[in-house]
From TrEMBL:
This is DUF2141 domain-containing protein. InterPro entries: DUF2141. Pfam families: DUF2141. It comes from the Bacteria. The lineage of its organism: Bacteria, Pseudomonadati, Bacteroidota, Flavobacteriia, Flavobacteriales.
Length: 137
């Protein structure tokens, strides 16, 4: 009987760890239809916001009518999202000599200023929609 209880507990534990939620990200405030939107999703502060190799997911989406949309299925957990408008279509964020972005940028929680994980993080425990507003300098 004890072995059955342990087996059931293990199966239920595996099921809860394997659950995913749908994340829909709507991006607005895009100033032109040129280029594309690049995104990174981080599941920890390691590498956030610019080390793309440490991102949990990364990708791109197109712009339509001044808006873009990203649909992802992710395991439950905490995440932070960064997006930028790659207007010149070179797959890199263009910056000035101070390091300030010359293309539109945005993050989950829409805070302005130097991006950090603590200000961008959110919990994903069920289906969720985020709205990210791009900021241009």
């Amino acid at each position: 009987m004890k072995n059955y209880i342990i087996a059931i507990a293990l199966l239920l534990g595996c099921y809860s760890f394997g659950q995913e939620a749908h994340l829909n990200i709507k991006i607005d405030g895009i100033q032109s239809e040129k280029g594309k939107i690049l995104y990174t999703v981080f599941s920890s502060k390691a590498g956030f916001p610019s080390d793309v190799d440490k991102a949990f997911k990364k990708g791109l989406t197109s712009i339509k009518n001044g808006e873009a949309q990203i649909d992802l299925d992710l395991p439950h957990g905490e995440y932070a999202v960064m997006v930028f408008h790659d207007e010149d279509d070179n797959d890199e964020l263009k910056t000035n000599w101070f390091g300030m972005p010359k293309e539109g940028v945005g993050n989950s929680n829409n805070h302005k200023g130097i991006p950090n994980y603590k200000k961008s993080v959110f919990m994903l425990s069920g289906d969720k929609t985020l709205e990210i507003h791009l900021f241009y300098m």
